[in-house]
Specification:
Helix content: 10-25%
Radius of gyration: 19 Å
Largest sheet: 3 strands, antiparallel
Strand order of the largest sheet: 1-2-3
Structural class: alpha+beta
Number of domains: 1
Oligomer: single chain
Shape: extended
Amino acid sequence: MSDDHAKKAVSSYNKTLIETPNIDRLAREGIRKILPGQGYYYNPIFIEQGDTINSEGYVTDLITDYALETLSKRNRDQPFCLLVHHKAPHRNWMPDTDHLDLFKDKNLPEPDNLFDDYQTRSAAARD
């Protein structure tokens, strides 16, 4: 698994800064779909094996569909590992357009710790 690397810090893209032979092997042998710059939630651009692909839809649905497609095409006689990483944990946390009004008529109270200053938390949480 490899995540959150600057393009210039992976030698399969750019050999001027650093050599990354293990990541380069993953790039050669694995299936890569990359969301450049953390990508967009809606109609994202993916880079796959060096080609730019404009995709229509919500990024979580697209990533899941790509993963399921990859699973269905795998060689079942060979060892296999699939790691699926979604954009959803990255800001700015946008829902699928089908869910934009999901809580429109709901009163969601602010949690007591919304403005927590972490002063009563452990050093690990504060720092």
